[in-house]
Amino acid sequence: MPSASPSGRPESSHWARQWQARRRLLIGAGLALLLLPYLALSFYTQPYWDDYDYVELLARLGSQWAAYKYLYTHHTGRFFSIWVTQLNPLGHGWPAGLRVLSLGWLGATWLAQAWAVRVLTRRQVSWAAAAAWSAVLLLAMLFSMPSPYAAFYWFSSANVYQVPAIVGMVWPAAVLQSLRAGSRWVRAGWYGLAAASVLGMAGSLELALLLLGWALAWLCYSAYRQGDARALRRWLGLAALAVVAGAVVVASPGNFVRLHHDGAGPAIPLWQILGRAALQTIVFLTEPRQVTALVVLPLVLARLGYCYRHLRPAGLRLPLGAGVVFVVGGVALQMLFLSFVAWGYPAVRVLNFLWFGLLTSWLLVLWAALPDAPGPATRLALRLRRPALLYGLLLALGGPERAAWREWLGNGPAWQRQLAAREATIRAARAAGQREVAVPPLVGLVPQYVLILGEPLSDRASARYNQSAATYYGLDSLRLSRPGLAPADVRVH
Question: How big is the CA angle at 126 (ends 125 and 128), to the nearest 5 degrees?
């Protein structure tokens, strides 16, 4: 028999608690170590392209409000992303603030996911455990997403594409909190947060507006089928708000100005648009790294989902077939919109948003489809949890995680040092009265496509990003003195 402690409890129980505490500590340290290079790279963030454009607009118009009105009436109806654009640190004379915001995007994503886990499990998962599982989800996203740079290290991209992904996790959880709250004022507070999040998502991106409408339609239908009048009223209220927000986006004069400026282009038959949307949906859904994540991550999370399946919200019950229709239909709807408005495969910053929605919705529908009693498929998933975790770690350590460490330790210091020297050269030339400046290219860098995609300038002064930087520095022309690294391509990295 095990010896007893002074309190009368078996000594083995004491050692078991110690082992569990050490195990949690080791898991936390491991997750922190995996996230470390991505967090560290935030301190090497530099302004790029559109980041400069807003500063020029602000200087020309004289105030944030004037810049807001100009963008809405001449460029886009994304009223919320225009508002977030006002946070651009360059516009406040604080370039180092871009690094703070890079950390902010990562931290906000992690916090929103942790809170959503807590709400979905009715707060039965502790904050520490929810934080750990959210770190797992964030790492899975970083390992598999088309472009970590566009999601977290480029302000003008994160503003439009990552912010709606963050607020998109807030509004459903806030509605669940409002349905569970006992006090009228607490219910109103949670529902107000949900409404604000819906406005933020709808006003950030047209794709987000489509995904929001698709999700709300399913939630309304589910509440109607289950006869849940309270939930139905809340979902319908948010749907009505989304319609109003969508009207504000679509009716923006900026959309028509931009359409006239860009030109309508040649008419494309509807069948070609539909065919292109279907093809791009298939290509996106079968991308190898993403398919791996869609298979491996649910297996890694199988025990969590199984243990808390009885805590699922009442509306989160869905046959797997219907769930697949919801997931694939959401992707196809967004690809159809993209096929109408643009030619060619979407840029990676756009794919980031599609991927975030795909992975999140896929995990939710798998959880919704779990039977109350474990069947053969559930037992198999539980047995495969550790092999799947090992497989995923081996892939990550040999690919994206290794690239992040090399980017940080191998490229980061030289990247920051050379760009600081370049800026000093530009400002010295400008102070001397030069209006056309040529700077040396970056040397000794091997881009890993986490933070560094290539040379941020071109040897052609006519390049769009060269013109943006030249305007920011008050120059007529800015270029490289000779060709260097391949230029950064934000469409494919």
Answer: 125
CA neighbours closer than 13 Å in the CB half-sphere of residue 51: 25
Count of Cβ atoms closer than 10 Å to residue 75 Cβ: 17
Tell which residue, 116, 327, 352, has the closest CA to residue 211. 327
CA atoms within 13 A on the CB side of 161: 25
pLDDT digits (tens, 9 = 90+) for 229-246: 999 999 999 999 999 999
Predicted local distance difference test score (pLDDT) of residue 11: 59
Which positions ≥6 away from 110 have C-beta within 8 Å?
Answer: 131, 134, 135, 138
Distances (CA, A) of 468 to 150, 185, 319, 356: 18, 48, 51, 30
pLDDT of 378 reads: 87
CA 316/CA 318 separation, integer angstroms: 6
**Which backbone phi and psi does 183 adopt, to 5 degrees?**
-85, 145
Q: How far apart are CA 296 and CA 309, in angstroms?
A: 19
Do residues 160 and 204 touch, judged by C-beta distance below 8 A? yes
